[in-house]
Amino acid sequence: MPDPTFRPLPKGIYTPLPTFFTAAEDLDLAAFASHVALVARAGTVPVVAGSAGEAAHLSPPERAALVRAARRALDACGLQRVPVVAGVGAPSTRETVQLANLAKEAGADYGMVIPPGYYAGALRADGGEALRRFFVDVAEASPLPIVVYNFPGVSGGIDLDSDLIVDVVRSAPNVVGVKLTCASVGKITRINAVVNSAEFKEKYPRKNPESEFRIIDGYIDILLPSIASGAAGAISGLPNLVPRTCVKLWELSNSATGTPEYEEAQQLQNRIALADGFMQKIGLSGMKMLLHKKFGYSPLPRRPLLPSRQDLGDEWIANPLLVSLMEEEEKLASIS
């Protein structure tokens, strides 16, 4: 019998939520909850305490507080079926499992785990056996289903290849997805060819038979080609600013090739790719400044990161690439 409390990991657009801070560097949970509601009502799935959420700067109780705030905000919006994905990665296996338990208690549905990059050289030795064992050990001990998170830029240059990821999935039935912030469409294709094959599913069933394995790319600027290669969606910073527009791209990208809808998807993908390229250049502090200019949230990161300058924020929010998408967002909001 299906579990009525189970929230599947959906296909679509995921929003990696920033963590907003007061001038005293305390959590601004009211602003955070407001933003959860904004992006979730637009049709995206919230990701809490990930890289964009400054997870490395958060204490375990703060991570749990963010998960609780996200769950409450979703429930208050009538979005009880929308899951919360929580970053639970830490430098050690032990702490990662502890964070997964805290996230579960706070109301998370899935734990996203990034490779521990502090001892990257040692972890890459022996064919990456320590990395494989890390993910398998975490998945076996975690009360939450696990999404493997590959992001070389923030994990000491560790780049999980498709063979290692497939080996982890084969060995750990509690791993239900992978987020690939490495811009490799080929990796998406290779993982999909193996893990989502009928033979693999039969031989290595998921821990929860209701869950489907999801491959999620970490850059919305490649959403269209990544869907064709087997991706189930994208986790990208841009939906923080224009969530409905990003959801529209997802919907159009699933149209049949050669149709007017697919041609529209190609055009919107081009616009989003240009805007996302700009967003990648201004970084985390820049994104916070844009959200400050658009929604009034605090632009402050937690130190040692420094906030972006207000005058640069004025320049960025007037960028024609972003203005075009924000105008599209307003049109979509008016008809939703």
In short:
The chain has 336 residues and is an alpha/beta fold.
What does this molecule look like?
The protein is α/β, with parallel strands linked by helices. The chain has a domain at 12-241: TIM Barrel. 51% of the residues lie in helices and 10% in strands. The protein has twelve helices and eight strands. Strands 1-2-3-4-5-6-7-8 form an eight-stranded parallel β-barrel, surrounded by seven helices. Helix 8 (223-228) links the parallel strand 7 and strand 8. It is globular, with a radius of gyration of 19 Å. The relative contact order is 0.12. The mean pLDDT is 96.
Q: The CATH topology of the domain at 12-241, please?
A: TIM Barrel
> What is the CA–CA distance across the termini?
35 Å
CATH 4th-level superfamily of the domain at 12-241: Aldolase class I
What's the helical proportion of residues? 40-55%
Strand-residue proportion: 5-15%
Strand order of the largest sheet: 1-2-3-4-5-6-7-8
CATH hierarchy: architecture of the domain at 12-241: Alpha-Beta Barrel
Low-confidence stretches: none
Q: Provide a count of the helices.
A: 12
What structural category characterises the helix and strand content? alpha/beta
> How would you describe the shape?
globular
Question: What's the alpha carbon Rg, rounded to whole Å?
Answer: 19 Å
Mean pLDDT: 96
